[in-house]
Write a structure and sequence with these properties.
single chain, 5-stranded mixed beta sheet, 11 strands, elongated, disordered N terminus
Length: 398
């Protein structure tokens, strides 16, 4: 199973923190601890049943070694699938942050979404196209193998043909946010011109597929097939991912075109960079009771953000000895102009991590703070406005 993770849309939260293993074509590649579990499960399944059934008299050691090799080849194919998506998306101007391998396959973390339906269609189809090529290549190899080929090699190749074909078929199901679901959304988007409505429709179809998978998986399990739980698990993640995508689309529609200056909290109180952490605590955090403050240089320009948690992490001696400039979070993503689109702000990893950003004027001086709380207030107000509008329309129609 492969899914996209695009900006603020947040497909699903992957269980376990991934750790980086490589950088390919400038894109970091990571694996989740859960990936090790699924590799072990596939190795055990193939080593215990598939290879002993395909190769008469094979020893357990060789069988499980082949199982491990097959599992690694499978995930190499999934990684190639993800790079198909990532490279085409990057060519369309979408930043690719990372590719992760995890419990259900692969996930590409991207900042932003396609700007038009044709771009989305191209990068949605890129991954399945890579998988199709891999399946065909293994299929050609299987057909060309001479009759004298060892059974070990034949079984290994035939498994890759089968599993890549299954991945291709599954990913092309029109269950958003799977690849087929993204193809469906792009076609709906091209037809209607409304990405929000297209996302909602595709997400509804995705949720429907998720429920069907859960139902069929439970039926299989109750019928004595333990692998039914796996289908139910996949259905659950598809259902949750589709719901998350639908919510993300609503947020995007509500906040697109809204500027940071419209949501920011004012007035803003700033801490000079040459203020000790102890002084910041007693003269700023205690009396104002804010959780964070902008830090400014001698010219009054914002250089970062310091939080109460960063102060609390220091001993009293450290608070006396260190300037706030030394402990402040100086990620450039935490400093935005007043004209910053809030929908794009939500896509910033720094904002997602900290939950707030400093809004500055043209010279770089703080004029306000925008936080996730401000965004939530705006969303609630937007929903109230929508309800009021729909209510008024209904009354007039009646």
């Amino acid at each position: 199973m492969t899914v996209r993770h695009c900006g603020s849309y947040g497909v699903i939260a992957m269980p376990g923190r991934s750790f980086r293993i490589a950088r390919i074509a400038g894109i970091p590649v990571g694996v989740s601890p859960w990936w090790l579990a699924i590799v072990a499960l596939i190795t055990w399944s193939l080593g215990a049943s598939y290879f002993p059934e395909e190769i008469h008299g094979i020893s357990p050691g060789v069988s499980y070694a082949l199982g491990l090799g097959s599992a690694l080849l499978l995930f190499a194919s999934i990684l190639a699938h993800e790079f198909g998506h990532a490279l085409v998306a990057r060519r369309a101007g979408i930043e690719v942050e990372e590719i992760d391998l995890w419990l259900l396959g692969g996930v590409s973390r991207m900042r932003g979404e396609a700007h038009d339906p044709d771009d989305e269609l191209r990068y949605a189809l890129a991954g399945p196209a890579v998988t199709a090529v891999i399946a065909v290549c293994f299929g050609v190899v299987a057909l060309l193998l001479p009759s004298s080929t060892p059974a070990v090699v034949r079984a290994l190749v035939e498994y890759q043909v089968l599993v890549n074909a299954l991945i291709l078929v599954f990913n092309m199901l029109p269950a958003f946010p799977l690849d087929g679901g993204r193809v469906l959304r792009s076609l709906l988007w091209r037809r209607s011109g409304d990405v929000g409505r297209s996302t909602a429709t595709a997400a509804s179809v995705g949720r429907g597929f998720g429920y069907v998978m859960i139902f069929l998986g439970i039926l299989e399990f109750l019928g004595g097939a333990p692998e039914g739980l796996w289908l139910a698990l996949i259905g659950f993640f598809v259902m949750m991912a589709a719901g998350s995508q639908a919510v993300g689309a609503q947020v995007q529609a509500a906040l697109s075109g809204v500027h940071a200056s419209e949501l920011m909290s004012t007035p803003v109180v700033s801490i000079p960079e040459r203020t000790s952490a102890l002084q910041a605590g007693t003269e700023y955090f205690v009396p104002y009771r804010y959780t964070s403050f902008p830090v400014v240089d001698e010219r009054g320009r914002a250089i970062g953000l310091v939080s109460v948690a960063q102060i609390d992490a220091l001993t009293r001696q450290q608070r006396s000895a260190r300037w706030v400039a030394d402990i402040a979070d100086r990620d450039p993503g935490l400093i935005v102009g007043g004209g910053e689109d809030v929908a794009r702000l939500l896509e910033r990893p720094a904002f997602a991590r900290v939950g707030r950003a400093v809004v500055v004027d043209e010279p770089g001086s703080p004029i306000g703070l925008v936080s996730i709380t401000d965004v939530q207030r705006a969303l609630r107000a937007s929903r109230l406005t929508d309800h009021a509008t729909s209510g008024s329309t209904h009354t007039a129609a009646g």
